[in-house]
Design a protein that fits this description.
By secondary structure, this protein is α/β, with parallel strands linked by helices. Helices cover 44% and strands 12% of the residues. It is built from 11 helices and 6 strands. The chain has helices spanning 6-23, 59-71, 76-84, 90-94, 118-123, 130-140, 167-184, 194-201, 206-209, 231-236, 241-256; strands at 102-103, 109-113, 149-153, 188-192, 214-218, 221-228. Helix 2 (59-71) runs parallel beside helix 7 (167-184). The N and C termini lie far apart (116 Å).
Length: 257
Amino acid sequence: MTEASPEQVLKQALKASQVWWQDMGVDAPILPAAQVKPAAVLKPVKRPAQQHTPNTPDISAQMTKATEQAKAAPTLDALKAIIEGFDAGVLSDHARNMVFARGNPDADIMVIGEAPGRQEDESGQPFVGPAGQLLDKMFAAIDLDEDDLYITNVCNWRPPGNRNPNEPELAMCAPFITRHMELVAPKLVVIVGGISLQALTGKTGIMKMRGQWQSLDINAKPTPAMPLYHPAFLLRRPELKRDAWRDLLAIQKRMSG
């Protein structure tokens, strides 16, 4: 015996109800046949395709690699070659040039800025744009020129979009600037800008820290370091140049003493 379909069962039930209503004297309207909807077919859920991002170096692995390579550099030329060949991820991928240093490597004063800008990226030298020109004028005011200074940055590549280098990037670059200072062995360091201050001392707030002598451990020796406003900041806030002048005089006095 063939089993009745759900639609046939429902029709029979409606017909039986109509007969019962008529027997009871109830005018029962003729009901339309019930439409049984087929069971819903579940469509497979479409999941968005996974986004594949380009492979980027692992920061912790790069820090280890940078530390090993930097320690192995016996000279400034060797260190420069190592940094030029280093894979710094988005930093080296987007930069035109690695920016190493300018000035006299035998100078007593080492000036350490933040990161290259557009003109520095194009030339491969630090502090050559408007901010760098102001920096040269600032030192010239206390009778110091490129023969008396050795100038570099805590970050050797221009970050994409001219943004500030972030903390992982600074941590990756830290072994290079540490070895850079060890090879130069300056008698005094000038820390230019808040990013450099944080990278070298772990302290923040250039507005409150400028003009206050710091101490950096270079070759296991305490080395005096003076935080300065970044010249790019002074170009936007020229009224603060008087503070920078006091800091420059403090540097002059420390070197002459």
